[in-house]
Amino acid sequence: MSALFELRDVTMRFGGLTALNRFSMQVEAGSIHALIGPNGAGKSTVFNCVSRFCMPQRGEIFFDSRPLLAEPAHRIVQLGIARTFQNIEQLHRMTVLETVLVGLTSRTPRYFSFAPGATRARAERRAVEEAEEILSQTALIGFRDTLAGELDFGRQKLLDLARALASRPRLLLLDEPAAGLRNREISFVDSILVNLARERGITIVLVEHVMQLVMSVADRVTVLSFGEKLAEGAPSAIRADSKVVEAYLGSEAAHA
Amino acid sequence: MYGAPPPKQLAALGLLVLAGFVLPHALPDYFLYIGNLLMMYAVLALGLDILLGWTGQFAFAHIAFYGFGIYATALLNMRLGIPFVLGMPIAAAVAALIGLLIALPATRLRTVYLALATYAFAECAQWVFRTWDSVTRGPDGLRMSAPQIFGYMVGNDRDAMPVIAIILAVMLGATLYLVRSRLGRAFCAVRDSEHVAAASGIDVKRTKVLAFTISAFYAGVAGGVYTLFQSFVHPDGLGVWTLVLVLTMIVVGGSGTIGGVLLGVLLLGVLPEALRAAPRGLLVWQEFAYGLILILAIMFMPRGLWGLVIYRLRRKARRGPPPQAVPVPALEREP
Amino acid sequence: MSLVLQGVASGVVTGCVYALVALSLVIVYKATDVVNFAGGELVMIGAYLGLLLLLWFQLPYIAMFALVPVAVFAVGALFDRITLRKVGGRALAKHVDLVSFVVATIGLSYLLKGAVRVVPFTEEVRRLPPLFSGPPVFIGDVVLQRQDLAIIAVTTMIMLALWLFFERTLLGKALRATSQNARAAALVGVPVSAMRMAVWGLASAIAGIAGVLLAPKLLMTPDMGAVVMLAFAAAIIGGFSSLPGCVVGGIALGVIQNLVGIFISPQAIAVTPFFVIMLVLLFRPEGLFGESLALKKV
Predict the structure, then answer these.
(1) Which residues of chain B lie closer than 8 angstroms to C104, CB-CB?
(2) Do B11 and B90 belong together in one domain?
(3) What is the pLDDT of residues C224-250, one digit of tens each?
(4) Domain identity same for B13 and B47
(5) Are B248 and B182 within one domain?
(6) Radius of gyration of chain A (CA)
(7) How is B31-60 classified by DSSP, letter by letter?
(8) In C, which residues are within 8 Å of B117 by CB distance?
(9) For B167-221, what is each residue's pLDDT tens digit?
(10) Contact predicate C61/C196, CB 8 Å
(11) Which one, of B290, B243, B267, lies nearest residue B48 by Cα?
């Protein structure tokens, strides 16, 4: 068993509110691991701790057996962890291509500040080529010069994913990639995720409310409730778990 | 922005320098003065826009760095005999250094707090200019001696114009490269979302500090330019009013765009001169006019005049209806 | 010693006025996320309106005191309705753009200042007649003008009224709800945009009253709006989000200013508020009563 990514005993409190209470989880390399739970269960907090936007009061986070909590926020992506955002948090005044170029930051050489010269020209050319390739893969190339804020909702989510992919991550944290999407778009996301995990070997942690997507792509599911781990296992086992059905799936299942 | 600046834009810089050498032989003194003034405002506004329009940091300290630039260049020349070609870069570097020192604590602050802290700094700097009699001559103002460039005395607007045109061309060129670089994109990313920027590997704090430093450098250069065609500096000119003027230029022209800033400088830089030429009855309306222009601009041209121009051009190019803004559904937030 | 006591006492008096203006700024900031750089000009407008009503229309003091807040209320409410709703309506669709709002209020400040300056009546420097004239009052060694006592009394009354308003009345509670979470307030049926207008009006009215109180103590010029920086300093000391913080911050600033004048140099009084702002933001950005500053949640 090879855990690429591990949370050990993480506790995160915001004032009086405990968002995560001694939460642990292991993610195997190459797997798609879904993290589900009712609203406010602390799923996004897990991501925010990994992104170093907040500092857990206790516990540790390891990636490739390297402690993450000692790293500053901007180093995380260089280590190979990219993430997307739940609410459309966009570079709304930058174009689609520029957004992906921002995603490429960790892999663009720091040519001497910004002075003209051959190094700079080469680096810029290569970055643009690579960004265009990523846009082709995510079917966004037709919107190359559109402002990110002017894209429709589904494409904004796709652009967020494209930006994250640009860093060539080994671990991808996806925060509700299917929320608010239509069925056709959800199956597109589904196929992209499976392709990323199976063909390119990217490990994926997925926070999602859309059960249809979770049940179809996840290898393993962890259920969070009020900051604590409620259950963990294969999707079929989770679906059968009475605790989970009671706490969370009950209402969802009734809708489905 | 990415790649290299288009050749057309670089050619325009060449034209600017050419104009700087030709116009002094063609225009009367008063127009040369206005030209120099506009070019100085251009350097000042481009610098403020790096912080405000590109990096989205609402900071007011710019006017203080401009003041440092003026006094340092002038005093280095007058007290130590350091010539302009050396004195101005030193002054600008000092302004940038102070900008860096201010940025280190200031970048911990956001929004109102940043605006107020930097505003307070600008007021303190103005107070120092006003009270440090032995150096700045305080409220009497400082009469500056004419700077020399390689033995060539810059005594009036005619002499100054080619030099100022070269300086503006260099600063504009640097800006063109800057906004099309990795650093320039990092500025924009920090402006639009600090979270996305950090998650993409951008060191947000370092980026902000760099923006502060670079912006202060521009202000220092603009201060140096001031000493080339003005002979007198008074602390009163280094207060909020000048800052609001530059801010208005950026907002009316279009913040975060080089073309917009230049357009704003052109329009609003000429306005006070036009009002000054008008009878006294009109001059009192100056403040009222600026207030009205600011309010109307922010209400009806959120991207400035430049935004309107670009929008028209794009629509023409597409020859179709304008892009429909797709309403973004509000997402439920986790508490 | 008596000099220091006197300084403290008159510092408390001017501090009360700073506190009022600071309250006006903070109420607006809490409810609408706008930093009102025109707050000082609303004070100035209040003072000039008072002068106009007293000298031109020969109204009694009481009538002036009732009319000025109403008029300044209208200025603030209209500014929100006409300008900010347009700027904010657009901003809300994408993101709240602080720069646009601040630029709009800077525009308002110059508009008001310019409007007063073009009236020929204001060219001459004037002074508003005080509310109470008569011999000063002695408390031990400390001398206070009757006007000073009136300032303290009026300020206290306004604070009490505000407290009662926010705690006890339905409208006040609705305003508080709006300022805490506009979306949730809208969901439970609070008319949010009307509330925003009311907040702008209320805050402006407070600034107008502060103008009437302040004007007899200094020479009136269209530039007297500069007092806003003292109010900003007071609000920053208090944490910029707490109403009691404004009161403590205002009084503290008034006293500090006078002590700086006595112990350091009268020249340094002018920079005191700016120094205070920088020091507080450097060492305790959340102020004495404020919540800690954090990036909003992702």
Answers:
(1) 294-295, 298-299
(2) yes
(3) 888 898 999 999 988 887 888 888 999
(4) yes
(5) no
(6) 19
(7) HHHHHHHHHHHHHHHHHHHIIIIIS-----
(8) 277-278, 281-282
(9) 999 999 999 999 999 999 999 999 988 999 999 999 999 999 999 999 999 999 9
(10) no
(11) B243
